[in-house]
Amino acid sequence: MTRLSLRQRLLMGVTLFSMFFGAGNLIFPPFTGYRAGSDAVPAFLGLISTAVLFPVLGIIATARAGGMDGLCRKVHPQFSKWFTLVIYLCIGPLLAIPRTASMAFSMMSFATAPAQSISLGPISAQQILAVVFSVVFFAASRFFAQRPSHLKDILGKILTPILLLLVLVLFSAGMVLLPAETGAPQPPYADAPFAAGFVEGYNTMDALAAMVFGILISVNIQDFGLQEEKQLRRETGISGLLAGGVLILVYGMLAVLGARASAVLPEASDGSVVLSGLCSLFFGNVGAALLAAIFLVACFNVCTGLLSSCASYFSKEFPRLSFMAWLNVFTVSGCVISVFGLGFILQISVPILTLIYPVALTIIVLNLFPFAFLEKPWVHRISVIAAFAYSVISML
């Protein structure tokens, strides 16, 4: 076998999309449309530049380099080792993995609202529900993540179609029930809609995830019988392009909903408020359940992919523990951290991600172009130092 069939490629593209499309990806597009209003088109183009283009380029660059080690080695072998480790820790067990459960639980308001006023001594029923939810959520994610080569069958064939159907139901309702007119653009979209959308897309942090998911997609492609390294890299890049196409389609539907919502909803503080307001407007009390289902499936897909990716990487780099042992470690740690709540996780994640994200983007770009001078280690070192300096300055 030298290449995948069209059906297999579509399956891999949808599987990769499901790993990218988490709760943050649900929130940012409608909020961009909501704030941009009549300037939603240029704002959306800016959004997909950083929310879709950079992650796709990350998948392609990682595939061409043969993994994150190949991406970072030109800087220095030790830098490659430690930066890769930091990326996996941040996008995995310390931040992104526990955030999936916390964000999913925060949207389960239809189930938890009645319990918010109940207190059982020093522990509220809300806290108990959070613990129970996290345990069940991570137990289910671990069950599906323990077979990395089967993720295409679980995410690509079952869960992602459910997610896309739910989003399509919401979009269809919006096209029927919402007026076509939009509100006036809000700052900063009123002055520079493309630039504002560009910055908003930066917040998805999917370029970091792209550097992690490359290995997992390659494993799933190998399960089809494709073993040649050159063909694996090619098919991984094609999967990235297909996933990007689906992301643009779904982001477009959500951005249109947000733009139309700007004319009917009062001021919203974030994308989750926009979506919850639309769901209540369209479906009443059932809307909360629909929105919770969308967030639950999206977060579950991402958590499963991250658990499998991180366990695969750590079992290869630190083989004293097996894949299943690392999977258990990350499942338990993610569950424990998630109980502290979404606010705590976001509070510690923002400064860490602000430091490493520009460095990651720089490494991706340097590995995309086949120019001879970009192969020189000193170019990579100077570029990475400059990117890190920019990160530090931006935090001051």
Automatic annotation (TrEMBL):
Q: Which UniProt keywords apply?
A: Amino-acid transport, Cell membrane, Membrane, Transmembrane, Transmembrane helix, Transport
Q: Which domain of life is it from?
A: Bacteria
Main location (coarse class): membrane
Subcellular location per UniProt equals:
Cell membrane
Q: Does the keyword Transmembrane helix apply?
A: yes
Q: Name one GO biological process term.
A: isoleucine transport
For membrane topology, the record states: Multi-pass membrane protein
Any keyword Membrane? yes
Q: Which GO terms describe its molecular function?
A: L-isoleucine transmembrane transporter activity; L-leucine transmembrane transporter activity; L-valine transmembrane transporter activity
Q: What's in the GO CC field?
A: plasma membrane
Transmembrane annotation, as ranges? 9-28, 40-61, 82-105, 125-145, 157-178, 238-261, 281-314, 326-349, 355-374
Its job: Component of the transport system for branched-chain amino acids.
Classification via NCBIfam families: livcs (TIGR00796)
Give the protein name, as stated in the record.
Branched-chain amino acid transport system carrier protein
Annotated source species: Candidatus Ruthenibacterium merdavium
